Amino acid sequence: MAPGHAFGGNEASAARWFAEQPGWWESHYVQAVDAIVDYLGGDGIRLEGRRVLDLGCGDGIMALGLAIKTGATSVLGLDLQPVDLVYLAQQATTHGVEPTHPRLSFGVSGETDLGVPDASIDAVVTWSVFEHVPDLPGLLAEIRRILVPDGLLFIQIWPLYFSEHGSHLWPWFDESFPHLRLDDATLRSQLRQRVDSAALGDAMLDLYDSCNRLTIDQLGDALVTAGFFVSKVSTGATSVHVPPELQAKPLSLLMLDEVKVLAVRV
Q1: Cβ distance 61 to 29 under 8 Å?
Q2: Which among 216, 252, 215, 205 is positioned nearest to 6, based on CA atoms?
Q3: Are 249 and 163 in contact (CB under 8 A)?
Q4: What is the spatial distance between Cα 17 and Cα 31, in angstroms, rounded to a whole number?
Q5: Is 152 helix (H, G, I), strand (E, B) or coil?
Q6: Which of 43, 96, 40, 94 is nearest to 72 (CA)?
Q7: pLDDT band at 132 (very low <50, low <70, confident <90, very high)
Q8: Contacts of 70 (CB under 8 A, 6+ apart)
Q9: Is pLDDT at 4 greater than 80 in this prediction?
Q10: In angstroms, rounded to a whole number, what is the distance separating the alpha carbons of residues 217 and 101?
Q11: Exposed/middle/buried for 245, CB within 10 Å: 0-12, 13-18, 19+?
């Protein structure tokens, strides 16, 4: 959720570059929403009738999908930068979807100040957000504050930092694990040589710098410390070739690229 070129919500941001790539709408309006619904549904939980917060909502596409497809009482999308409603409307119209919904609203938050009343949210959902959170204890405390007792927190992270694509720079590196194999100066230099413009290079390096290197175990510890009960966790693992330079790295870090967590406010 760090500000700057990475998540600026404008044409020069890294977020916008990714949003312009093929399949982005499908992956967020359809696949992400379906994944959340299915993950909760596996425990008999539905978002119907609940007040939902999409935290780190980015371009608003997933929030729109949640509002239209889940029967939630309300969906509030929050991010550090205002949602570009013109861009969201363009994308929705292109894909044959009504760009507004009476139960959907957007707002701007701080990193650890969400500006939402105490105990006013039934479920917080996040998608590829927590790997960018600079103050994890502070944000979790704030999420706990705004959730009702027994309120839900769904977290999805992809890619985890120590996995093959954890740098978030995979479009420009055919080499595996560039962020773990190259020194920092070389990584930055090679990226700038491969991108189309200096502005895009700045944006992508801001995205890379926002990665907090969070591990699954650190996430679990932070949730319990903050007053959450970790109800369910699932991981995604991929087959990777381990480079010579990474032989000493824990294999669990290298192969686990995704985590989904369902936690309950206690």
Answers
A1: yes
A2: 205
A3: no
A4: 19
A5: strand
A6: 40
A7: very high
A8: 33, 37, 46, 47, 48, 52
A9: no
A10: 38
A11: exposed
Q: What is the pLDDT of residues 198-240, one digit of tens each?
A: 999 999 999 999 999 999 999 999 999 999 999 999 999 889 9
Question: 45 and 88 in contact (C-beta within 8 Å)?
Answer: no
Catalogue all structural domains in the chain, each as residue range(s) with its CATH number: 14-160+213-265 (3.40.50.150)
pLDDT digits (tens, 9 = 90+) for 176-205: 999 999 999 999 999 999 999 999 999 999
Residues in the chain, overall count: 266
Give phi and psi for 48, each to the nearest 5. Answer: -60, 130
d(CA 219, CA 155): 10
Helix (H) or strand (E) holding 114: none
Average pLDDT, the chain: 95
- The pair of structure tokens assigned to 128 is 């590829």
